[in-house]
Design a protein that fits this description.
Length: 308
């Protein structure tokens, strides 16, 4: 469908809006928005970044991820100023995106009717939870609403963790901080905490592109949420972010080791490495391959690409 026609349908017709949104886009639409991803996809077309990449992503720092994305021309993938449930529990996974907007009765009534006809159960803020699979992160734009903008409490939090084994990132608030904190392994990055219930908010879309503060997020993006903030990594760049981080980690460890040994000066390590240091680095990787904080298979791949 022509995007201009789609925009006019959304503006002119609440019924058309309810038919087109509050549900996942078609597979063709999903592929259109994520066309740079060439790997595996979920049946609905959402990019499915490999579990191994997600596992390795947990060791990536926010700064490393941000640096790679900036170098690739992606300048709007970070959002800060969160109130996480836990400072020390990272959230990593594939984004399942949701958009909420201020309630408008004529539209919300149509969306709820269509949801009931489609077999959806419960309040609309539980619909995305039913779609989660392991490794997903429920990412919702709740337009920054705090009072009466609590998208989940501990009941829904338990359901989310049972399905995804990760957590949530909400441009909105949550309630039941104490109860949520008892879910081992779960974390929530939210804009605030409040005891109120969700009201005057309606679900607009699931698995469509959304805005999260200063960032644009697509379904299937890899979420990297840590104390400093949240980076939303396009699926097609996730492996590059991981590999770059691993190389930086290894080079830093090698440099620190050699400085402690007095083998090189700080000036030699902090500048572009000479051929001699690069050769020493490759030999060091081979000698310590079973001890380093990067999977052995990844080090072997790195060595294959080196000319030493």
């Amino acid at each position: 469908m022509n995007l201009k026609i789609l925009a006019w349908l959304i503006v002119l017709s609440p019924i058309a809006l309810s038919q087109l949104l509050a549900q996942t886009p078609t597979k063709e639409q999903m592929i259109f928005f994520t066309s740079d991803w060439k790997g595996e996809r979920f049946p609905d077309g959402r990019p499915k970044v490999a579990d191994d990449v997600l596992k390795r992503m947990k060791s990536v720092t926010i700064e490393e991820a941000w640096g790679v994305l900036r170098n690739e021309g992606y300048h709007n993938q970070f959002e800060g100023d969160w109130q996480p449930l836990h400072d020390d529990v990272p959230v990593v996974g594939r984004a399942l995106t949701v958009q909420y907007v201020p309630n408008r009765p004529d539209v919300s009534d149509q969306i709820k009717k269509k949801g009931a006809a489609d077999g959806r159960i419960g309040n609309t803020n539980s619909w995305p939870i039913d779609m989660l699979s392991e490794g997903d992160v429920y990412v919702a734009d709740g337009f920054g609403k705090i009072v009466d903008g609590t998208l989940i409490g501990d009941n829904l939090g338990n359901s989310i963790y049972a399905k995804s084994k990760t957590g949530v990132v909400f441009n909105a608030s949550s309630r039941d901080l104490e109860g949520l904190s008892e879910i081992e392994g779960f974390n929530a990055f939210v804009k605030g905490w409040h005891p109120s219930f969700l009201t005057e908010v309606m679900l607009l879309s699931i698995n469509a592109p959304i805005r999260m503060g200063a960032a644009t997020v697509l379904p299937g993006d890899v979420v990297l949420a840590k104390k400093e903030g949240v980076v939303f990594i396009p699926a097609h760049l996730a492996e590059k972010v991981v590999v770059t981080s691993e190389v930086v980690r290894l080079r830093d460890l090698f440099g620190i080791t050699r400085l402690k040994e007095g083998r090189y000066t700080p000036g030699q390590i902090d500048n572009k490495w000479s051929d001699e240091i690069e050769k020493d680095f490759s030999q060091w990787l081979k000698a310590h391959i079973d001890e380093l904080p990067v999977p052995k298979e990844q080090i072997q791949e790195l060595l294959k690409k080196r000319t030493w």
